[in-house]
Design a protein that fits this description.
The protein is α+β, with helices and mostly antiparallel strands. 37% of the residues lie in helices and 21% in strands. It has ten helices and twelve strands.
């Protein structure tokens, strides 16, 4: 069965109470940003290609209170105090602190780098005057699972500060700012997909996103009506976008585009001869070109209400990521192969790779059989037990209305 996740409203009420306990005052509000599952379109985003993610019903919540200059010491005017319920064993909270004026890329580590990166982006890219603030974070997006837990945090902080500071930023602009935070402050060369899904997702739909123009369109993903579910298989192999593997793949794509005389691989037509490229670069480029075509085909099938028929394309995507882009791992391959053997209509790794999660498109009546088969296969190979849960397409980021107040 799914791991139990409390309703967002309950979590927000609890977070608001906890904030008052930690900081001695009520927050100005609570904001939510979901994680995402990428249905198909992997490593195409930073190549200006096409992606098809959907926001999921697991999310990061932030309670935020801006610093009050008239009631707090002037020395703390640009201080940001952070706390997270995701804490090491034996500790009630994980805490961090930074000064806005002293922010420099790489200067804040751990989970606090993500809120700090947002502040840095707002100041240095958007020209915003950001005062000090207090923040408490709670998240149900698994960390390191390839479901975009870090972007969920960044997006939640972005929408909170956008509203509190009345910046008037639209969602595409906020997506660009969180990408700037990742690239310039955190040091992870990520694309635009994750934050776009978190900001612009809609319940019951996937987000068809053109990463070159940022034009987006919701595409129906009526899983329940077709008796289908997306089963997430979190291998618990933790990955990091800040490591060298992701960066190396991006550099290889850039070299391939340059060798083919294109600004990016998006400008390379399908069917272009890749014979002039070295073997490794040829494999990387072949994946991106083929993946873009698979995204377009999946979109066509979903528009035609052929949800079950997309399974073969999901599986083809995994084979390409495994063989041509070489970002899978034994645990991901085992999850995919076992799910397919147990009756899944399609399966693939999702996210940047090198660990994280796989997804399987399964019929509702076969979910338990697929789940049991995966658990048994992992046990037989001596791998740590994976976490398995289903996800539904959810709405994008926004404020959670909290009725609780400290005076009650």
């Amino acid at each position: 069965m799914n791991a139990p996740v409390p309703p967002v409203q309950t979590r927000a009420e609890n977070l608001s109470r906890r904030f008052a306990e930690v900081y001695g005052a009520e927050p100005d509000g609570v904001w939510r940003a979901p994680g995402r599952v990428n249905l198909i379109g992997e490593h195409t985003d930073y190549n200006n290609g096409f992606v098809l993610p959907f926001a999921i019903d697991r999310s990061a919540l932030v309670a935020v209170r801006l610093r009050r200059p008239d009631s707090e010491p002037e020395a703390e005017a640009d201080v940001v105090r952070l706390a997270s319920t995701y804490a090491p064993d034996g500790e009630a909270l994980s805490r961090a602190l930074f000064s806005i004026g002293g922010l420099e890329p790489g200067g804040v580590g751990g989970w606090a780098a993500y809120p700090a990166g947002v502040v840095y982006a707002l100041v240095h890219s958007a020209g915003a005057a950001v005062p000090g603030f207090d923040l408490l974070l709670d998240s149900t997006v698994p960390v390191g699972a390839g479901l975009s837990s870090s972007h969920a945090v960044e997006v939640a902080v972005t929408v909170a500060l956008n509203e509190l500071l009345e910046l008037g930023l639209d969602r595409p602009r906020m997506a660009r700012l969180t990408q700037y935070a990742e690239n310039e402050f955190v040091g992870a060369p990520t694309g635009i997909m994750d934050q776009s899904a978190s900001l612009m997702g809609q319940a019951g739909s996937a987000l068809f996103l053109d990463c070159r123009s940022l034009d987006s369109e919701t595409v129906p993903l009526p899983l329940a009506r077709h008796g289908l579910e997306v089963l997430v298989i979190d291998t618990r192999v933790v990955h990091s976008h800040a490591d060298g593997g992701y960066s190396a793949r991006r550099s290889s794509c850039e070299r391939g585009a340059a060798a083919l005389g294109a600004a990016s691989l998006r400008e390379v037509p399908a069917g272009t001869s890749l014979d002039g490229l070295d073997a490794e670069t040829r494999r990387r480029v072949r994946h991106v070109l083929g993946e873009n075509e698979r995204v377009l085909q999946v979109v066509r099938q979903l528009r035609a209400d052929d949800v079950g028929g997309i399974g073969t394309l999901l599986t083809a995507s995994h084979a390409s990521l495994r063989d041509d882009f070489e970002v899978s791992c034994p645990e991901l391959d085992l999850a995919v192969d076992t799910a397919l053997a147990a009756g899944a209509l399609g399966a693939r790794m999702t996210g940047g790779g090198f660990g994280g999660s796989a997804i399987a498109l399964v019929r509702q009546e076969e979910e338990e059989r697929v789940r049991a088969a995966v658990l048994a296969a992992f046990a037989e190979r001596g791998f740590p037990e994976p976490a398995l849960f289903t996800v539904l397409p959810a709405d994008g980021a926004g404020r959670v209305r909290v009725t609780w107040s400290r005076g009650e």
